[in-house]
Amino acid sequence: MTSRGAGTAFSRKNYRLSTEPEKSKVTGMGLYALCKSRTSSSWRHSSGVLINPAQLSLTGFFATLVSDQVAEGRLGPSTVVLDHTSGFEGLLLVDDDLLGVIGHSNFGSIRATTCVYKGKWIYEVLISSQGLMQIGWCTLNCRFNQEEGVGDTPDSYAYDGNRVRKWNVTTTNYGKEGKLVEKDTSMWQLQGEPTVLITLAHIFNYFSPLMCKVYLVEDVLMTFLLSILERGGAVDAHPLIQQLLDLMWLLMEEYEVHECLKQLLMSLLRAYRFSPIIPDLGLQIHYLRLTIAVLKHEKSRKYLLSNVLFDVLRSVVFFYIKSPLRVEEAGLQELIPTTWWPNRFTKEGKESKEVKEESAEERLRRRAYERGCQRLKKRIEVVEGLQVQILKLLLNNKDRGGGEASRYIFLNKFRKFLQENASNRGNLTVLCPPEYMVCFLHRLIAALRFFWDGHKAKTPAALSSEEAYIPPQLFYNGKVDYFDLQRLGGLLSHLKKTLKDDLAAKANVLIDPAELQAVTMDDLDEDEESATSAAQRPSAALAIGGALARPGWLSSPTLGRANRFLSTAAVSLMNPRRPLGTLEKIKVRTLSVEQRTEEDIEGSHGNEGLLLGRPPEEPDQPITENSLLEILDGIVMMYNLSVHQQLGKMVGVSDDVNEYAMALKDTEEKISRCPKRRRDIHEELLKSQKVFSEKLNHLSRRLAWINVTIYSKEKMQDIYWLLRVCIRTIEHGDRTGSLFAFMPEFYLSVAMNSYSALKNYFSPVNSMEELPGYEETLMRLAAILAKHFADSRIVGTDIRDSLMQALASYVCYPHSLRAVERIPEEQRISMMKNLLAPYEQRPWAQTNWILVRLWRGCGFGYRYTRLPHLLKTKPEDASLPSLQKPCPSTLLQRHMADLLRSDRDLAPSFLNSVLNQLNWAFSEFIGMIQEIQQAAERLERNFVDSRQLKVCATCFDLSVSLLRVLEMTVTLAPEIFLDWNRPSSELLLRRLAQLLNQVLNRVTAERNLFDRVVNLRLPGLESVDHYPILVAVTGILVRLLVDTDRATAVLLADPCFQLRSIQYLLGHAEPLALAAAAPATDKRHFSLHTYTEYISAEELAKVDKMLSHLSEESKQAAATTLPTSEEDLCPICYAHPISAIFRPCSHKSCKACINQHLMNNKDCFFCKATITGVDDFTKPPTTATSSAALPGS
Fold first, then answer.
1. DSSP 3-state of 351
2. CB 287 within 8 A of CB 272
3. Are 120 and 27 in contact (CB under 8 A)?
4. Which residues are registered as beta bridge partners of 82?
């Protein structure tokens, strides 16, 4: 090597001299020059490596053979050093180890100790200083002086990187037309000739520090790279970007490359995020293409994944397609010149009652609008395709060269990303915006299914993505981090303690008893494992060859916090596919996300990785690559965190379109009715019409964008696929028995929420009924809801309430109700039995609403979709509360009747619960309306709390629904009340009669409290009126009284019975009341006859017959009743004669009082003695003829 000038140096570095077929290995740091030469006839004679360092500093030169064996074509020692004995002139300072040299003369040269004469050879030099220098080959015949060095003689050849010229006595340019460097196969060359890259080394030496500056990266480097891609074509058609990245990693310091790549990605993300939306989305496409080109470079991709994409950047932005703030910004007026909006739909996508033919003009507008939406969709699909390509690069698991594959780096970062969003749900600065999460979820699903089906193509025995699910062992083997998310059975630490035997028996998972006492790893000793724990694991140590006690770092607080999701159990798993001896148990410790390797995830050599601990119920069949299972699990979690919420939020645009369309239609109707003489009103209406039309034009175009990016058919299929994944996962988990409790709650939540989204958010644009397997999916989800709403393995209050509400919603709609009816009969009967279980054991209100919805459409006057009294008082109000059309289930009603008849214990417990809750709900309602009335009567202006009004209305609605459940029970199984051979029938009938009389008396009294509050018409109490509650009571009375005398006698015997209350139902008043009210006014009384649209003539006839029957029976009862002395009346109620005597204290009361008292208390009313039995009592006293055993005694 020859060097002119001062200040140039080579830094110390190891070099290897090798033949070309072998890969040269570069070690050390800094800039270096690479010299590669093909030996030919002109170089066949012996030649040596030569360095000529005049006025330059060399601090390292070293070369070794690749192999210890002597290679053909090479002469010299195996270790190459500088030859300081001969061949150089001038002032040179050589290091003692002969590995570095510093030259101070004008032109000095030095040789190495090895020569080559045949073949192709390469050697490397690290240049650590600047200056003019030449490097090359020479023969032993060369003689150098201060004026001539390597390249200046006929027997030498050199390259001058400073001037980009080659030397062999004469000099020529090395490279043509500015095309300095290109890559041909595995070697760098200049215009097809092998060369060193000293020139590039100089370039990068000057510019590397600048390439770390953000303004230069964004303005120069990114612009240059974008210009490369502007030529068009696929990203792969522009290899120059890959070659440039190769050079950066080759010629720049690593910290400089890292900073440059970080700034480049940050610049790309900013540009993508803030670039304006243009009609063809060209800017977004341009930036995404460059991102793909950068990520195609393996080494750059792995660095960015490990250190930048999730750690420094919010890289999810790359997968987001932002909505334009203004329609003009995105050019939507050009894409969608014709706007259209539906004008015959109601809220929640329900069909309008008035179905009219679409006019020709509307049809043309709609079709033009749909064509515009298709044009927009095609352009957005291009962007979505590029975003999916980015994820495919990040999920590549074949790039294992130089370290861990990209997919496993992504997995660890993705899990941390989920943890941040799950653990900081109240910190908006940390959370990923929901609109980003929606787009990220859809792109991730597309990439995941691509790799899943690719694996299926290679492994036919594996499952396709259409059959995807998460195996249950992921939830309890500790291989996947679920952070602090709730499990179905409660806290994980508690489950591992209570279900440790089941884990051992079913999944071969053994929990260390000594460590079950700790709740988290933070509670363990930080230094060493306790002697007790070590003594309890001798077999595990012997299994790995007497291995080592647990290292201290496993107990560190840092690892403990990272692993808090798995309590502290040390988990041992046995391979379930072959029996293991006691000395073969595999000791498995839970690793943090950072410590996991590919083997920990995918498994190898009998280790199943994420699938360790397979239960016997799980089929022994490959599903897919384990890493894809973890990504799928993360997708389900991501939907639960924020995606569902965002899907519901964006429906607001559709609601706005609906409201403006209704306002526009109303304005147009007013214009048509406006008198011609009122020009002022007509002009104002025309202005309003213009405003509404402009707003609708804007919203319809914005809605088109939202429908394409969020509610398109493809997005709907993604959510539907996710729903089916959750259903299959729940089904597989359910088969594991008690281990089902380990499943995270969010799987059930996502199953319910995704179905709700498909039903409510995507329609009417896309219909769920068009999805493949729709009916089967509905049935399987119905089976899950029917089984698990009362599942004892599920302990969380919130998830149990959600299941109950989902089932209540499910039975409201005909399609989903029919799905419930299609589940196996055993599951249907079990569901109805759980619904009839005593209400005290669970939320009774939700259970009651489910039963009511199964009955609505069959009850007395119970076929309305909107409350009839509201339609009478405010028929023009478009915001009236709307109910679903009645869709009763006679099949489930039959199951309910069979259960109540066959189970003599179930019926009384169920009905007592209903009666208790009715008594509570109606009493609360009366107490609240008393407070409301008192506030309204005060002189000072008082405002009633809206929350109090809401609670009051809720208590009223509960009372009505409980009465409807009683009506359903009386109609389906009347013998429960009327067959007195049943031990509890008489008591149930008397309690029912007492409550019905109380309700009637409170509601039907003239100018009573109920009337006054109803007439106030307070907002929030719209549902409170006579009709809902009186028709429910009437339905019960009609069924009990029309054909049975026993029920009539019980009703008339109740001291609260008033015939006037029954007459009130038909608008009849007592003669005295009519006489008193004659001079008054023509006040209209409530009457069932005014609701003929909702009550049939047959039902009204039954009410007339009931009134006549009660009138006649009450007259006869009054004529035959003998006066009773006070001594003979029950001392508790003073309404019935004494008919029961208690043992052993002999106190007395009527049977109704003592039977009702004994349901809750066994102490005597009077002396508090424990009652052991009740005997019949008649006057005069006689020996007891019968004895009633005390329930439970």
1. strand
2. yes
3. no
4. 112
